[in-house]
Amino acid sequence: MTDSKRRGRLAASALLGGVLVLTGCSSADADGPAAEGSKKSQEQVDEAAAKDASDARIVISPKNGATNASINNAAKVTVSKGTLTEVTMTTGDGKAVEGTLAGDGKSWAPKGQLERATVYKISASAKDAKGREAHENSSFTTVSPDNSFIGNFTPEDGSTVGVGMPVSINFNKAITDRKAVQSGITVSSSSGQEVVGHWFNSQRLDFRPDDYWQEGSTVTLKLNLDGVEGADGVFGVQQKTVTFTIGRNQVSTVDASAKTMTVTQDGKTIKTIPISAGSPENPTYNGRMVISEKFKETRMNGATVGFTDDDGKGEYDIKDVPHAMRLSTSGTFIHGNYWGPDSVFGSANTSHGCVGLNDVKGAGDPKQPAAWFYNNSIIGDVVVVKNSKDKTIQPDNGLNGWNMSWADWKAGSAV
Predict the structure, then answer these.
(1) Are strands 148-149 and 234-236 parallel, antiparallel or unpaired?
(2) What pLDDT digit, counting tens, does each position of 322-357 carry?
(3) Angle 266-270-271 (CA atoms, 0-180°, nearest 5)?
(4) Is 25 a catalytic site residue?
(5) How many CB atoms lie within 10 A of CB 116?
(6) Sheet containing 167-171, strands listed edge to edge, beginning at the edge strand earlier in sequence
(7) Has UniProt tagged this entry with the keyword DNA damage (predicted)?
(8) Residue 10: what pLDDT?
(9) Based on CB atoms within 10 Å of each CB, which residue in 23, 94, 124, 203 is the most buried?
(10) What per-residue confidence (pLDDT) applies to 269?
């Protein structure tokens, strides 16, 4: 190799070595004085931010993005280590929701029940003891009608009813977890009577004591079904307390063979009325029945309950039937009869299964037997039919669970 080439390679090596040295020095300087200063500067920023951060901790329920939220108790804002200064709640389309802030400023909740299948947004602000602010936001969707169930109940809140009136709840969707739902319902009486629920099917749950309610007592129904999963993905939304009063003890006994009805109050006979029950071809059900509806006048069309000329049972359509009181879902009534001769009552059974009492058209004469009985009866009174040629009415045909033994009744409880 010539000297000139050797000197060229040495020069190149020196240049590369210089680059490598320079690169190595740059890497080493990362932990040098400049980087250390940068770290201190970031620590100072973080420390300053920490000093400015509020100690107040806001919690909004339901959590952000929740679905199937309760319409009763789910929405709530709470704060710890501080007090709430402002809470706003709106629907997804901007409609304001009124709420109440607790006196100590620690919590907030909407005043009323929320709507189903609705998006709600909550924005909350709070301050800690040093006046430092905190903010939180959340959005959730309440349970939809398709994903919720309700129970339609009878009797009505505040009503006075007869001693035979059960608490009957009909759910708008089939219940598969009967235990969970029944556990969310309580029925109690001021008389101290044991009250038990019985499921007739997946949508009907009735409650009653062993014997009739004690006259003058108060019965309380509590529905605590909010958030209870009654079926897969289907939740309860009701949170309600209902009370009703039991009136005097009136039980009326219809003897289909003797064609009379004996009315008793508190165990004493107050009136005996001649009646006309179901004919031999269409006898009246036997059993204990409860008056579930009262109509000053109503229309009775036999076609609605299966009586047509085609089946040989005899078609009928009677307008303005006076003083009619329902005893069964299938169409059994005790009612006034203005179209039959007076001689029928107490002497012949001629109806299509109802119990008829003498009356006049227009339901205007209070002296008529049907009018007297109507005016002296209330929803929940018991009418007992005996000595008829028909079978005993089914317990679920109307509010007639009294036709089931106490042992069988309790066997239908899911709790």
Answers:
(1) parallel
(2) 999 999 999 999 999 988 888 899 999 999 899 999
(3) 140
(4) no
(5) 17
(6) 151-154, 167-171, 204-209, 195-201
(7) no
(8) 35
(9) 124
(10) 98
So what's the pLDDT on residue 283? 96
Q: Are residues 283 and 316 in the same domain?
A: yes
Q: Name the amino acid, one letter, at 406.
A: W
Question: Mapping DSSP to helix (H, G, I), strand (E, B) and coil, where does residue 84 land?
Answer: strand
DSSP-derived secondary structure for 47-101: HHHHHHS---EEEEESPTT--SB-SSS--EEEEESSEEEEEEEEETT--B--EEE
pLDDT for residue 280: 93
- Start-to-end C-alpha separation, the chain: 105
d(C-alpha 317, C-alpha 132), whole Å: 79
- 123 and 234 in a single domain? The answer is no
Contacts of 234 (CB under 8 A, 6+ apart): 147, 148, 149, 173
C-alpha–C-alpha distance, residues 159 and 162, integer Å: 10
- Residues 223 and 290 placed together within one structural domain of the fold: no
| 274 occurs within a structural domain | yes
Identify which of 253, 172, 234 has the alpha carbon closest to the alpha carbon of residue 205. 172
Task: Find tokens 């000139």 and name the residue.
Answer: 4
For residue 152, CA distances in Å to 241, 300, 361 come to: 13, 26, 35
Given 198, 323, 335, 352, which residue is catalytic? Answer: 335
- What is the extent of the structural domain holding 293? 250-400
Residue 377, pLDDT score? 98
Question: Same domain for 282 and 329?
Answer: yes
Residue given tokens 């040495």 in the structure block? 10
Candidate list 198, 323, 352, 354, residue with the active-site label? 354
189 and 92: one domain? no
Cα pseudo-dihedral 290, 293, 297, 303, rounded to 10: -80
Number of structural domains, the chain? 3
- Which residues of the chain have a pLDDT value below 70? 1-51, 301-316, 363-364
CATH number assigned to the domain comprising residue 80: 2.60.40.3780
To the query of whether residue 352 is one of the catalytic residues in this protein, the response is no
CATH code of residue 173: 2.60.40.3710
CB 333 within 8 A of CB 351: no
